[in-house]
Amino acid sequence: MSAIAAEATVSVQHADSQSDIGDRAGRLGVEIADVAGLIADLSKLSGQQQSQAQATQSAAASMNAAAAQLSRTMGTSRQAAAEVRAVLDKSASAISGTVQRTTITLSAMADGALHIQTTLDGVSGSVKNVETASTAIGQIARETKLLALNASVEAARAGDAGRGFAIIANAVKGLADQIHEFSTQTTGNLGNLTAALDALRTQARGNSQAAEQTIADTSAAAEATATLEALVGSVDRLVTDIDAMAQPVEQSIAGFSTMQTELSALADGVAAGRGHLELAEARTQSILSISEDFMLFLVESGFHTADAPYIALARAKAGEIAAVFTDAVARGKIGMADLFDDHYQPIKGTDPQQVTTRFTDFTDQVLPALQEPVLDFDKRIAFCAAVDRNGYLPTHNAVYSQPQGGDPVWNAANCRNRRIFDDRTGLSAGRSTKPFLLQTYRRDMGGGQFALMKDCSAPITINGRHWGGLRIAFKV
User: Which positions carry the signal peptide feature in this UniProt record (predicted)?
Assistant: First the structure.
């Protein structure tokens, strides 16, 4: 083999070796990015688990406190029920005895009233008999008086012979007058006695009815007493039930206490795991940064990589955008203050949140003509968009600039313009001043869906002032 042929062979081998190194570095960056994404997901999940463990621990503490309060309340209720039972028991006994004695007394009163009424009825009958006899005596007195008057007339006719008979006649007349007067007085007294007996009979009848009603009421009181005694039994059963419930509650308190201890240990373990994951996430991000710097070093050192065309495209487009922005400032189409405005104004009713600045209308006018053609460079390219130094993406590709609807998940995937992407990739692309930055990341497509992507960005500088960067994202 000639020296020239040998040198050519070595040169080809060296180029192949450089290409192989670049490719391996690229694959290493992809793997590191994938691991970093997984660790970030685990760290996020660990944070959620820690929050859930703390919430569960707090809930267990609240349940334990509630069980303890229930135990105290049950103790108080049991004591109160026992006191009520004692009072009701004593009251029921006293009321029952009183009602029984009152019933006996009232029954005796009712019987006495009924006996008085019967006696009065008999007396009334006797009074009527006396009235009848008095009337008969009055009639006899009148007839005797008439007979005496006739005898006196006959004695007067007889003259001296009838003088003795006249004296008898006068005596009989006097006796008749007395009998008549006595009969009249007896009749009056019997009338008064009858009226008094009628009034007494009415009163006795009322007393008898009242006594009967009182006996009925006393029967109702006896039923109430029975109800009260049943209530005493219910309170007694309540005390028994509270005693039966107390043991499970005490067991629950002990169980909650044990669970609280275990949850505390779990929360501590989750917190420790989260700390390790956060540390691992930081370390993987550091390794990812080293991988990105290594890729920059390889490219600047002349090593060929599979991503070289995208790097060259990003740098060229960033330069074109910088030139257009600089020319617009020079022509007075937009001022530097407006072009660097970072007072983002929220667009009301958007979800995810969209914002505008004083340069949004300007980028809508000039960026589509520069960004859209990049999508045709390679079918692997997902998007091409410029972001400012805070990750704000004012004007996206048309396919990702749809009007928002009512579904936040759909909006997240299809309405990506006018949004701030302040994740590591977005901020790094906007703030890097290196010739280029090649990042590997997982793109959040919304709804828990991710796509492994590479993001090649180059800085955009206006009149010596760093505005942001152009991002070209392409599938791995």
Answer: none
Domain limits, CATH 1.10.287.950, in the chain: 67-257
Phi-psi domain of 464 (left: phi exceeds 0; alpha: psi -120 through 50; beta: other): left
The rounded distance, in Å, linking the Cα atoms of 74 and 63 is 16
Helix%, strand%, coil% for the chain, nearest 5? 75, 10, 15
Phi, psi of 450 (to 5 degrees): -130, 150
Helices (H) and strands (E) in the chain, counts: 7, 8
The architecture that CATH gives domain 307-475 is 2-Layer Sandwich (3.30)
Assigned fold of 67-257: Helix Hairpins (1.10.287)
How far, in Å, CA of 98 to CA of 107, rounded? 14
- When pLDDT is cut at 50, 70 and 90, the band that residue 458 belongs to is very high
For residue 202, CA distances in Å to 73, 114, 116, 120, 235 come to 62, 12, 11, 10, 49
> How open is the CA angle 256-257-258, to the nearest 5 degrees?
90
Q: Mind listing the pLDDT tens digit for each residue in 207-266?
A: 667 666 666 666 666 666 677 667 667 766 766 767 676 667 677 667 666 766 776 776
DSSP H helical ranges for 301-347: 308-330, 336-339
